[in-house]
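Let us walk through a complete example step by step. Step one is to write down the protein sequence. Step two is to encode the small molecule, adenosine-5'-triphosphate, as a SMILES string so that its atoms and bonds are unambiguous. Step three, shown after the inputs, is the structure prediction itself.
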Amino acid sequence: MREMGELWSQLGSLMATIMFVYAMYEQFFPHHLRVYARKYTQKFTRLVYPYIQISFPEFSGERLKRSEAYTAIRTYLSANSSERAQRLKAEVDQGRQDSVVLSMDDNEEITDEFHGVKLWWSANYTLPRTQSFSFYPSSEEKRFLTLTFHRRHRHLITTSYIQHVLNKGRAIAVDNRKLKLYTNNPSNDWYGWKRTKWSHVNFEHPSRFETLAMDPKKKEDIVKDLERFKTGEKYYAKVGKAWKRGYLLYGPPGTGKSSMIAAMANYMNYDVYDLELTAVKENTELRKLLIETSSKSIIVIEDIDCSLDLTGQRKKKKKEKDEDDEEKQKNNPVKKAEEEEKKESKVTLSGLLNFIDGIWSACGGERIIIFTTNFVEKLDPALIRRGRMDKHIEMSYCGYEAFKVLAKNYLEVESHSLFPTIEKLMGETNISPADVAENLMPKSADEDPEICLKSLIKSLEDAKKKAEEKAEKKAKEDMEENEKKELAKDEKVEDTGKSGEEVEENGIH
Ligand SMILES: Nc1ncnc2c1ncn2[C@@H]1O[C@H](COP(=O)(O)OP(=O)(O)OP(=O)(O)O)[C@@H](O)[C@H]1O
Ligand SMILES: [Mg+2]
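Step three: the predicted structure of the complex.
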């Protein structure tokens, strides 16, 4: 016991001596001598200290983008650290609020082994040079992971082990993956305490290709296309094409464009970035948003024709609408502010084109971009040319085959005596799958499928009647218009004394 006490006191005096020597050194040694001393100390340390350290910073490239390597390694370490680390950090799993994820705490170290070689990982951070009190994490706080190993294993570690960790980390992330739906925040929120460009929630849309009502051949074609894309990394590299694919979904409202996107995301197991263009103020913001998207994702711009003034046509229509709405908005300050915000948006067609081309060149692979529109003819050809939007998919009104899918899903009915009537009516009139689905949904638990089918027949008959009335009205209007033209022509003939043909040739003035 006395020996222990002596040892402690000796250690204490040794520490005091070291501190004294260091203080003298700092005080009396000129700066340039200290630089020399540090240099040679480092050389000496390198000679006697046989370990190599590699650090993996959290952010790369001026804090623009979270390093993928850092994320993958953290995932790998989290999977290993819960058993090996002594100090752990617990965070609530964003996907399942009832479970926590354990990872190694800051400045904690764990060991790993690879082909019999022992190595050490530690999680570190550096504080900002000037410290000031803040409730929120400092933007200058830099986190990094450090790998330490003996220099004799340099080759094995740099060529195999790091790749092994990255692959494992990515695989674990895919296994644990919960699909997310991201929406972009207005740029005012980008720099506050939230500091995120995208907000996310779990993506739990039930739409799948099996539940999607459309022509089976078309569906099969799309699934094959996606499959080719998913497994095509090597092919894309071989032909020198970026591993991205653009889809344009177009068709009338309620034909399943949004459902198709959800089905694609579920099939591919990709996150969805729902980009709301009206919340983006300018082209540079678009680029920043793009940089923050991750691979294995679908970037969606819905109703592209409504998000931007893409053509003169659209502008005119909006102007007319604005005039209509002006009066209403005068008395509604909230709407007015919203409208003003929309007007502030300065994203241009060329900005959008650069954004898409950026996806193709500026960020990593495995990304899909989807545009949807109700009016394909309104879009600028530059926006939807092949190479940008590689595949154009028309989502059309409900055909008989699509109806059968819905009947099976909603009513569990594969054939029925009313089916031929429905088939005939569907050939004669247009109805959206959304309307069919609405009719087929039983209104009470014990509702007979026949009642639903009859309700659908009624809707089809109504739609047919409406379409006929509309066609009749249109024919009548056309006839009246022609009559007016004829009348105007006759009046001109009487005034000028020329024949009808002559007036026609020269035009009516
Ligand atoms: N092809 C379809 N297959 C299955 N269900 C569909 C289909 N189309 C529409 N529906 C049903 O109708 C609802 C609306 O469809 P969805 O939102 O996908 O249409 P949309 O084409 O995106 O319409 P909009 O152009 O108005 O955005 C869906 O929730 C779904 O229940
Ligand atoms: Mg939609």
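Step four is interpretation. Residues 411-495 form one domain.
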